[in-house]
Automatic annotation (TrEMBL):
It comes from Krasilnikovia cinnamomea. This is Secondary thiamine-phosphate synthase enzyme. InterPro entries: UPF0047_YjbQ-like, YjbQ-like_sf. Belongs to the UPF0047 family. PANTHER family: UNCHARACTERIZED PROTEIN YJBQ-RELATED, UPF0047 PROTEIN C4A8.02C. It comes from the Bacteria. The lineage of its organism: Bacteria, Bacillati, Actinomycetota, Actinomycetes, Micromonosporales.
Length: 134
């Protein structure tokens, strides 16, 4: 198994960051296997979605409606509504596993690998890429 950790700047607002290029670079030339993408944070997730056509903003809107950033949460450290960020991984898992064929991630035409981070308290995140050879 080969592993690499990348740092992703997420800023101070909820965001969806496309990390497909970094993942593709990691698997290039590695043959067949599985790419495992893991975010070792309690308030972020990994989603396989279309980006650039509004879906990333739609996802953030849906998170805001499903998990409002208000004072309803028992988990109360950090910025207002931060407790909802700790619930996010129950809906958007902190990992994804994807097939790699001949050194290329087998994504669909419009699919991208995205880091989903609603937590503006942490301006950067770590993402662990692991390749399991088949």
């Amino acid at each position: 198994m080969r592993t690499e950790v990348i740092t992703v700047r997420t800023g101070s607002r909820p965001t969806v960051v496309d990390i497909t290029r970094e993942a593709e670079a990691f698997v290039t030339g590695r043959g067949d296997g599985l790419l495992h993408v893991f975010v070792p944070h309690a308030t972020a997730g990994v989603a396989i979605i279309e980006t650039g056509a509004g879906s990333d903003d739609d996802l953030l809107t849906a998170i805001g409606e499903l998990l409002p950033a208000d004072d309803r949460w028992r988990h109360r450290h950090g910025s207002a509504g931060h407790g909802r960020d700790h619930v996010l991984p129950a809906w958007i898992a902190p990992y994804a596993t994807l097939p790699v064929i001949s050194g290329r991630i087998a994504l669909g035409t419009w699919q991208s690998i995205c880091l989903v981070d609603p937590n503006g308290d942490n301006p950067s995140r770590q993402v662990r890429l692991s390749f399991l050879e088949g």
